[in-house]
Amino acid sequence: MSSAEPLVLIVSGPSGSGKSTLVEKLLELSGMLLAVSCTTRPPRKTEASAKWYNFVSEAQFREMVARGEFLEYAQVFGKHWYGTPRKWLDQARKQQKDLVLEIDVQGAQQVKQALPGAVAIFVLPPSRAELERRIRARGQDSEDEIGRRLERARQELLSFSSYDYAVVNDDLGRAGREVQAVALAARCRVPRREECIGEILKSFGG
Question: Is 60 exceeded by the pLDDT of residue 156?
Answer without folding.
Answer: yes
